[in-house]
C-alpha cells in the first residue's frame, strides 16, 4: 500500500506561526503554533526547525512545503514584497529557501488569497464562478475568484481592500477601509463606549444583542454599512455571485445578520441598484484557523 502524500502548511502571522500537515483531500492534522520571531535570521531558523519536526514525524511522506504570509506575495517566484505586518520578510524567497535547505518543492501565497483558495477548493466558494472572501481583522483582507479561479492580479495585489477609500474627498488613513472596516478598531471603540478595558468582542456583541448601548448600536450599524460599501463596489465592478466572510469576528451571528440587513436595506432604498443588479449571496467562510494552511497547500498542488 502506497503511503499517503502529505504537505506542510506554514501560516506566518504577525503574532504566531501556525502549522499543520495537509493531505491531498484538504484534511489537516498535527496543527501547532509558535510565536513569530521578530527578525529574519530567527524566522529562518524557526522555519528550518518546523520542517525538521515534520520530516521527523512523517518522513518521506512529506512532499512539499506551502507558505501563507502577509504582503505582496508573488506566487510565481515565491518572493514576498513589503511583508505587511512583518516588514523584515521583504525580499524573502520561500521557494528557494526550502529548495536549498530541504530539496522539497514549495509554494507561497498571500494570506487573504490563501483563504480564498481554501474556500474555492473545499469550502463555500466551490463551484462559484465569481466570488469574494472578506477577512475582517486588523484590516480588511480579500481574495477574489473570477471565472472559477483565484484572481491574483498582474502584480499579485488583487484584493488588497484595506487600501480602498470610502470617498475621494478624504483619502487619509482614517478613511481607508482597512481602518473603517477593521474588526479590531470596531471592537476597541465599542469597548471604550461601554467603559470596558481592552479585550475581545464577546462583551461588545452581548451589549448589541441586549440593546444596552445606542452608541455601540450606531457604531455597529456604520461598521456594517462600511462593509456593504465594499461589497457594493465590487459587485458592480465584477458582477459577483457570492461574498463570504472570515476572521474572528465572523463567529458572531450578529455580524452576518447585520451585514445582510444593511445590504438589503440599501437595495430597497436605491431603486436603480435593485432593478439593475441581481442580489448577491452573503455567507460565512467554511474554514476558520485552518483556511490559510489549506489554501497555501492547494496553491502548491496547483503548481505541482
UniProtKB/TrEMBL annotation:
Concerning SUPFAM superfamilies, the annotation shows: Actin-like ATPase domain
> Which Pfam family, giving just one, matches this sequence?
ROK
**Which InterPro entries does the entry mention?**
ATPase_NBD, ROK
Q: Which family does it belong to?
A: Belongs to the ROK (NagC/XylR) family.
What this protein is called in its record is ROK family protein
Which organism encodes this protein?
Answer: Aerococcus viridans
Amino acid at each position: 500500500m502506497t503511503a499517503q502524500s502529505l504537505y506542510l502548511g506554514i501560516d506566518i502571522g504577525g503574532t504566531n506561526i501556525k502549522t499543520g500537515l495537509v493531505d491531498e483531500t484538504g484534511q489537516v492534522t498535527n496543527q501547532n503554533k509558535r510565536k513569530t520571531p521578530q527578525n529574519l535570521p530567527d524566522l529562518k531558523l524557526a522555519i528550518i526547525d518546523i520542517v525538521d519536526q515534520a520530516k521527523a514525524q512523517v518522513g518521506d511522506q512529506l512532499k512539499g512545503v506551502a507558505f501563507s504570509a502577509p504582503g505582496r506575495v508573488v506566487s510565481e517566484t515565491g518572493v514576498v514584497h513589503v511583508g505587511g505586518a512583518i516588514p523584515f520578510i521583504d525580499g524573502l524567497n520561500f521557494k528557494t529557501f526550502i529548495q536549498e535547505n530541504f530539496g522539497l518543492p514549495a509554494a507561497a501565497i498571500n494570506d487573504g488569497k490563501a483563504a480564498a483558495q481554501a474556500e474555492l477548493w473545499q469550502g463555500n466558494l466551490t463551484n462559484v464562478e465569481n466570488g469574494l472572501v472578506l477577512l475582517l481583522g486588523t484590516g480588511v483582507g480579500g481574495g477574489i475568484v473570477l471565472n472559477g479561479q483565484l484572481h491574483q492580479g498582474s502584480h499579485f495585489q488583487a484584493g488588497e481592500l484595506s487600501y480602498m477609500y470610502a470617498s475621494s474627498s478624504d483619502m487619509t488613513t482614517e478613511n481607508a477601509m482597512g481602518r473603517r472596516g477593521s474588526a479590531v478598531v470596531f471592537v476597541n471603540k465599542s469597548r471604550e463606549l461601554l467603559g470596558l478595558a481592552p479585550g475581545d468582542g464577546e462583551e461588545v456583541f452581548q451589549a448589541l444583542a441586549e440593546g444596552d448601548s445606542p452608541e455601540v448600536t450606531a457604531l455597529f450599524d456604520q461598521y456594517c454599512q462600511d462593509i456593504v460599501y465594499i461589497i457594493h463596489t465590487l459587485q458592480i465592478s465584477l458582477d459577483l455571485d457570492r461574498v463570504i466572510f472570515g476572521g474572528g469576528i465572523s463567529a458572531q451571528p450578529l455580524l452576518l445578520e447585520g451585514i445582510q440587513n444593511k445590504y438589503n436595506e440599501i437595495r430597497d432604498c436605491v431603486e436603480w441598484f435593485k432593478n439593475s443588479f441581481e442580489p448577491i449571496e452573503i455567507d460565512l467562510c467554511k474554514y476558520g484557523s485552518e483556511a490559510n494552511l489549506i489554501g497555501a497547500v492547494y496553491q502548491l498542488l496547483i503548481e505541482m
